[in-house]
Write a structure and sequence with these properties.
heterodimer, A: alpha/beta, Rossmann fold, B: mainly alpha, 13 helices
Chain lengths: 271, 331
């Protein structure tokens, strides 16, 4: 189901299922991502999006089926080699991290380090560039736990960029941010995607944003793939009903000529 | 203070302590002892008692502090250290079993009691870590309770062995469990502990980048390329080697591993490339000073140094637990 057969497939998932204890989280998930593609995985809470993302980066072990990264099975990678291919931006949390922004971003260079050594010139350059691109250079010497949610999210992205991988996985990067920071993160991601040809696999439950930002959408519901294809197609498909299970109305984006979803009115009380 | 400068300062201070401590004590030692290799009393006290004991305190303090530092990173909790997590009790149980069973052997120049203590320490780590792991996430409460539970079980087993022992053996065990360096005579003990603390320290230095990343969370560390399980296993072995060696000679000495890393974080920040040497030096300084105090403050008898460090560390622990910051939830 690859839309751009000419392009190199960097990530391929085939019939992947995953259980946690007796609970089935993912069932027969299949899709692929090409180099430089911006792919968004949408779905309601509990659809298995985060689990899928963690399985792709081998942060959760187990599961059946195949996940291939650059044509090689995920299990065959050494941890450092995998980190050169895939980087991961977790869901923002309140974890206390005592490092400064610069220290934290430099730690993204770990896959290129050997023991007893320190980061070389190229590593420092990559980290500086990541700080510049994300606009985090101005507060590079502040401690991570003094930052706001939006600033923190940018720093996490900066560290992932410093890692210099081909695929960037992001878990709900804008969910808890205000409009301004949401916009900044989206700009940042599409810039990185276009300029550095980084493949982006992003998880969100915001379908409207997903259709505006991405090249392709995978819709996940109850652990299954309900839809995989171009953004304008999902708005015409039957997957929407299953995805939302609540009244909604389709309208049109005034600028983008793209269908958008707005919540339906609550049922009127009878007079 | 700049971080390298802070470490150089600590190193100089440590050397000063190492040089001065053997001259402090009930018996006055003239400086001429250093170059006159006579057979007089002062020389024998100096070379057979004072110097080995100070070197042992130096080694033990460094090892305990490095162990605490490694534990705090792996458990992501500043209250974690070999003593509060029952690892010292595990080592003590191993060493007691060795004493009680009376099977003298040694392997690779290292005494049987050290090997037994190592095994006991490793058992305790595995138990506590396993219990902390079964619940979701790392809660401070689960970790501390697991540590307390393991300590209780192992302590009662030690008591049971004491109960079975005869009067004098029982006193030896009791005094040893209080923690102290009075057993150090000549360089035999130093030579058995040195390779263990050395090996453990080397492993910690080998893993400083990994320690930094593990502090930010296991998943993030793994996504950056850290083999998290391998790192944890290596660190657990390192800490068990160090604590096992130290406890088999000195008994359980508490809270050095708790206080020192905290002070070092204030001094050099959170980066383990600087924290590790700072903790080693600071631990060496602290325990050498404590031991010097312990053997002089009540002269002619001496205070078990374990009692002294616990008197210092207990309140410090409470202060960390109650007083401060979200630091307790994650380093």
């Amino acid at each position: 189901m690859i839309d751009h057969p000419a392009q190199e497939t960097v990530l391929e998932i085939r019939d992947f299922s995953f259980r946690l204890g007796r609970k089935e989280i993912l069932r027969d998930v299949s899709f692929a991502a090409a180099r430089g593609e911006y792919l968004t995985i949408v779905g309601p809470n509990g659809a298995g999006k985060t689990t899928l993302l963690k399985c792709i980066d081998r942060l959760l072990a187990g599961g059946t089926g195949r996940i291939d990264v650059f044509g090689l099975p995920l299990e065959s990678y050494r941890q450092k080699d995998l980190a050169r291919r895939i980087s991961y931006v977790p869901q923002a949390d309140g974890r206390v991290i005592p490092f400064t922004v610069r220290q934290f971003v430099l730690m993204g260079r770990y896959p290129y380090l050997s023991p007893f050594s320190s980061i070389d010139k190229e590593g420092r350059r990559a980290a500086d560039e990541a700080l510049q691109v994300t606009g985090t250079a101005e507060f590079a010497d502040r401690r991570l736990d003094t930052l706001s949610g939006g600033e923190r999210q940018k720093v996490y992205i900066a560290a992932a960029l410093a890692q210099g991988s081909d695929i960037l996985l992001l878990d709900e990067p804008t969910t808890f941010l205000d409009y301004r920071h949401q916009a900044e993160i989206r700009d940042l991601l599409s810039r990185v995607n276009r300029q550095s040809k980084v493949t982006i696999v992003c998880v969100t439950h915001d379908l409207n944003r997903a259709v505006l930002d991405s090249d392709r959408i995978v819709a996940l519901g109850g652990g299954r793939v309900l839809f995989a294809g171009r953004p304008d197609e999902i708005m015409k498909s039957d997957a929407l009903e299953a995805l939302f299970r609540t009244p909604f109305v389709l309208t049109s984006h005034p600028e983008a000529a793209m269908p958008m979803i707005v919540p339906g009115l609550p049922p009127k009380s009878q007079p | 203070m700049r971080r390298p400068a802070a470490i150089i300062f600590l190193a100089l201070f440590a050397l000063l302590v190492l040089a001065a401590a053997p001259f402090i004590g009930m018996e006055r030692i003239p400086f001429s002892t250093l170059w006159q290799h006579g057979d007089d009393m002062a020389a024998r006290i100096f070379w057979q008692l004072r110097v080995p004991r100070v070197v042992m305190a130096f080694l033990a303090g460094a090892g305990l502090a490095a162990g605490g530092l490694a534990f705090q990173a792996v458990f992501r909790n500043p209250l974690a250290e070999p003593f509060t997590l029952g690892v010292a009790s595990g080592a003590a149980l191993g060493a007691s079993a060795y004493i009680h069973l009376g099977l003298p052997f040694s392997l690779l120049w290292i005494s049987g009691s050290s090997w037994f203590a190592f095994a006991g320490a490793l058992l305790a780590v595995v138990l506590v870590y396993g219990m902390t792991r079964t619940r979701q996430g790392f809660s401070t409460a689960t970790m501390l309770l697991a540590g307390v539970a393991v300590s209780f079980c192992f302590s009662s087993l030690i008591l049971f062995m004491q109960y079975l022992s005869d009067f004098t053996q029982s006193f030896v065990l009791l005094r040893w469990v209080m923690g102290g360096l009075h057993t150090v005579v000549g360089f035999g003990e130093v030579l058995t502990v040195l390779p263990l603390v050395g090996a453990g320290t080397l492993i910690v230095f080998y893993l400083t980048h990994e320690l930094n990343l593990v502090t930010t969370g296991e998943e993030l560390a793994a996504s950056r390329g850290v083999s998290v399980n391998r790192t944890k296993i290596l660190l657990f072995v390192a800490v068990s080697l160090m604590v096992g060696g130290i406890v088999s000679v000195c008994g359980p000495i508490g809270f050095v591993g708790l206080i020192v890393p905290h002070i070092c974080r204030l001094l050099v920040g959170p980066d383990h490339r600087y924290l590790t040497p700072a903790a080693l030096l600071n631990g060496a300084i602290l325990l050498t000073l404590c031991d010097t105090l312990a053997r002089t403050v009540m002269a002619p008898t001496e205070l078990p140094v374990g009692i002294l460090t616990s008197l210092l560390g207990g309140p410090f622990f409470l202060w960390l637990l109650l007083g401060s910051s979200p630091q307790v939830e994650a380093v």
